[in-house]
Sequence to fold (335 residues):
Amino acid sequence: MNDMKGKRVVVLGGAGFLGSHLCERLLRDGAAEVISLDNLITGDERNLADVAAVGRLLVVRHDITEPMRVDGPVDCVFNLASPASPIDYAQLPIETLRVGSLGTENGLRLAREKGAVFVQASTSEIYGDPLVHPQREDYWGHVNPIGPRSVYDEAKRYGEAITAAYARTYGVRTRLARIFNTYGPKMRLEDGRVVPAFVGQALRGEDFTVFGDGTQTRSFCYARDLIDGLVRLALSDVTEPVNLGNPREMTILEFAEAVRKAHGGGGRIVFMPLPKDDPKQRRPDITRARTLLGWEPKVSLEEGLVETLAYFRKVVSPRAAPHPQPGKTSVGASP
Fold:
């Protein structure tokens, strides 16, 4: 599979934040048809409203934990289906585990049936609260298997395990992307991740809610860059896990200042207790992506925040949403 032109592609979780961006990118690259499967538990079909004009898009409402059938040939299956924010997987723990296990295997079965490439969207959360910094793909992680974040962490770790097992046992052509914090248009403002939390608070004229002392670090990759990495990985023959993220690391306090600068103002910093098992450091080593895929982020944080703020200005008014309550926003979320 040299490029996406003329290909028929299935995107599991296609109505989500990254899934909808991926559908658009695939169609712009000349895919013959993109089929989005999403049960809309956290996705939103409005994310795909402007994508249908780009090319042939089939939107199907379906829970991938149930058997799926796709008529005709399929060249590639991307699995981006999962609740991915702390609020979502705290409220949907069983659903998160089921989509990461049953849903991933159903996607693998489809890829096996069709002879398609299967791309598993894994996460930096498989590294947990890392003892190695920056995180390389050969690091096995430091994860609490029964903590409040474990339903997402372990679902994704299992997803990698069964993806590798299908490759070894059935010869399915698999790809594993470990996605670090990603942001951009089409995120949900109240999804619990730090970027929409700070952006929403800035636009509503509220104080910034920082959990812990704000010295914990993250790195932020713009959605357009991340999607480019996913497509490059799908088109490659790289079978080992690949980190996709921006290696520019900053503290949460520094990020708050970046949002304040991009917006042209903002409230004061309000500190809240740090959630249990929230990672203290997060930065990808992207040597493998640079070497094997020729990929690295191009969009600066400053540029990405300008575009993100422009998007959210269309949907946020100063009184559009209530002030976040303690414990409802986390700064350690994954993509």
About this structure: Residues 199 and 259 are 7 Å apart (CA to CA).
